[in-house]
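Reviewers asked in the last cycle whether our approach scales beyond single polypeptides. To address this, we selected a multi-component target totalling 731 residues and predicted its structure end to end. The input consisted of the following lines:
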Amino acid sequence: MRSGALAEDDRGFVRLPSRFRLSFRYLRRRAHSHRVGLLLALPAIAVLGFLIAYPIFLTFKLSLSSVLLPSFRAKFVGLNNATQLFHDPGFWLALKNTAIWAMAVVSLEFVLGLSAALVLNRSFRGRRLFRLLIFLPWTVPKIVAANTWAWMFHGDYGIINATLKTLGLSSWRHVWLGDPATALGAVIVAEVWQGYGFVMLMLLAGLQAIPDDLLSAGKVDGASQWQLFRFIVIPCLRPVIVLVLLLLTIQSFNAFIMVYTMTGGGPAGRTEILGLYIYRLSFQFFRFEVASAAGIVLLILAFTVSFFYMRALGAREGGRA
Amino acid sequence: MRPFRFGSLVGLAVFVSQVVASPATGAEKVVKWWMGSWWKDQAPKVAQRYEKEHPGVRIAVETPTITGYLDKLITATLGGSPPDLAMVNDFMAFTMDERNLVIPWDGHLDGLNTNDFFPVAWKGFQRKGRVLGLPYRLDTESVVFYNKAMLDEAGLKYPAADWTYKDLLAYAQKLNKPPRYGLCIAGALTNPINISTQLLPAMRAWGGDVLDSSMTKVTINQKPAVEAVQWWVELYAKHKVVPPGTLNNNFVDCASLFGAEQVAMFISGPGGYNYLDVTRGTKDIKIGTVPQPDHQARVSIVGIIVPVGAAQPEEARKFGKWFINNLGELTIRTPATKPAYKFPPWNTPKMAAFIEAVGWGKPTPPLPQWTEMEIIMSKEFQNALLQAKSVQQAMDDAAAAMQKLLDTKR
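The resulting structure, written as structure tokens, was:
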């Protein structure tokens, strides 16, 4: 028998070399080596677990308690805080505004970011400059961007109205941030302006990771540009897309600086979103317990959305496997 | 010889380090002092002077931006590492006190002549008979700034303190030449305190108020208060003597419009001068000031508090009292003590209208719910401006929400 050739046992089955056999000793050794790895990773897992789990636990506990500060001595009050929250019409208005805000911000940032990424993935002169220009707003501190846009949209001295007047379009001048019909839209424009550069960057990285061979093969098979996009680019980008959408959605749920600075939630609460509502409850009204209940609602919302995103990604990856 | 030499050097080094280090670190007490970001140039000078007069104490100054100032203060206090002394507004102090986050000054007032304070400031920073902080700043935002040249052009004499709301409307109408408007008022939710500041004195001028004298019943929907709000709303909706962007405007925006000569009058506090220094640029605008009409004004008070958990409360109090006793020379905002007005710029004519208005000013009600009530009031004022609700309906809704807050056990 040639050295290295596989032997057969008495029933004619191939006998694996001993190093491949799943002996009890082997399994124990393997478990032991895992245990070592686990032990080494334990401090990091503990710190991470503490940093993630403890604040959530504390928020959950606060949402069910009446708390004596500064000792944080808690008295269990059941769902009292949640009841207070759900009886506040301001909460439902904020929830509705958050839904509109999240849908608009996520979809606009994604569409603009994807469009920019597709354009900037082609080679042309000045491509780097355009990439930089589109990404630049993302690097501006949010508070600065918010103030700048508030000035631009200002009804009396904003540059947008001034430009419309210069162009002879005085009738289009408007109190953008003071009209319930346009205020939320104006703040969304500012938020999207600042955020879509990040989407572009992430998707561009994804686009550049698509192997040229795949696209070339598609072209050889006679696929149109749309078919290349639909059947090669989008499937290859899917993990990045899901990640980007997830991040955008969570960010949009947590957002508040842009609204706080540009409108303060006005006019008459028409732009108040959950982030601002919770901020006010916590740091202006000091109603930490009700704010925690609102925070839990936000957490459940974010978790539900994340779950569906992850499921969409998982199902796709599972299908491909 | 070598070991001996090495040992000597080590010994000498240890000795020198001990001698040099001991006075600076061992005995030094560090007082953490927080002020708003507008104090970033002045606060270190104040600290330096105190340190010079009080060796062994170091004042560690921090000047966080006002956006998020309260969040940082609360987070630091709840986290167990608050500043030893912090600047807060009256309404912030009341809310913090409700949650047991302030150490009152009672029993620690020796070396301080409390009669030096304007009574409205001294009483205005107390809650349930306790002194929550030492007031150092007393502002009234109830002063009307006017452009003298525009009044001259319209043939109007400069208003005096005994003018009425009827006069104010007449002035605004005569000065109104769109796109230049007669008056700028606050209507934006970006700073709700601006809205309540202009409404409250008017409600009192009409004989009403937000709350009854026991502060247990909301009266904002009663006839006098509603009429006062109606007057403000009509400036925008009926007389159109205020800019179309009123729902965007707070006092700072109004100062910008005044600086650009797009409005003839606006309402503000002494801070109005600071805004105008920036907004008028090189324009030589002759500015006049007069208290808001009918001898009614609202005052706001800023004080220094010792948060619960302060590491050096005793040293902080000593420093706080020293600061108050030297306020005229040290402060950069309108002082809350009378002796401070001997010093410039507080003794100059441009401060006269503010001091006059302070004389009849009323402070913020010492209620922990006040900030929330102010936002409710401002939102409903916006609803009335938008004509989404009648003034009566808006004030009824405000009253219901505010009363619920007052009645809810916290």
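The CA atoms of residues 176 and 186 of chain A lie 7 Å apart. We regard this as preliminary and will revisit it once experimental data from Aim 1 are available.
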